[in-house]
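Revision sheet: structure tokens.
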Amino acid sequence: MEGSNSSDNGQRLTTALVTGASSGIGREMAHLLANHGHDLVLVARQARRLEELAGNLRKTYDINVTVVLKDLSSPMAAQEIHAELQNSGIRIDMLINNAGFNVYGPFVDTNLESELQMIQVNVVTLTSLTKLFVRGMVERGFGRILHVASTASFTPAPLDSIYAATKAYVLSFSEAIAEELRGSGVIVTALCPGPTQTEFAERARMTDTKIFRGRLMSAREVASIGYNALLRGERTVVPGLANKALVLSIRFSPRNLVAKIAKKLMTRQTGVMSPGARHV
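Predicted:
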């Protein structure tokens, strides 16, 4: 299967790889890409969800969809994905590094094995996939890479310390290689959403924290903002006015004060459950 083609109006169409595609922002990003005529490679470890999504996308949008079942916490996951696609003759022109998860709680109490798996997914596999696919993009003079970071990229986050640190890495890494690749035809964008209506909070057992109270942006809103920013060639995008204001205030505040405020937002509120955080 050829990874790139052209539509009747001359717009270049591509094959996009989306990690964490079975739910949340990744799922909505897959729908957006499919709606714009891109063939897809969907990566996740939940077979039933991924196959259902792939079938729906093929039927609705008449595109090619390849499913790759992979646990991205495996040290060799990125290399295995890359090799599988090479063997299948599938060329990737758009890489959406969306997969990620969180381990919430006081650092002294959290599980080390889970945290190392989180670092593997959020940092190591993301970096490896970027390394493996960006070289081909540069050789062809065209490519798009979207890394899903977080508003947590901008702040130390007590009770969420390692997650925030992984997202700080994602943001810094994205901005650095975006500058390295300037003029190459390859665009790198860091998408930094705040709390979003996905399964993320439930899985991390964070639905009763202050940060997940109030109105949350939908996964569809966030995916659309990220996709459009990528097409425009923006390096960093923070969805939503409230999130933009938060990031701006962080940049002009003392780091110790930022950490104290972040701790209050990350602390569980007894008897409080955010209704929005349960939505997919």
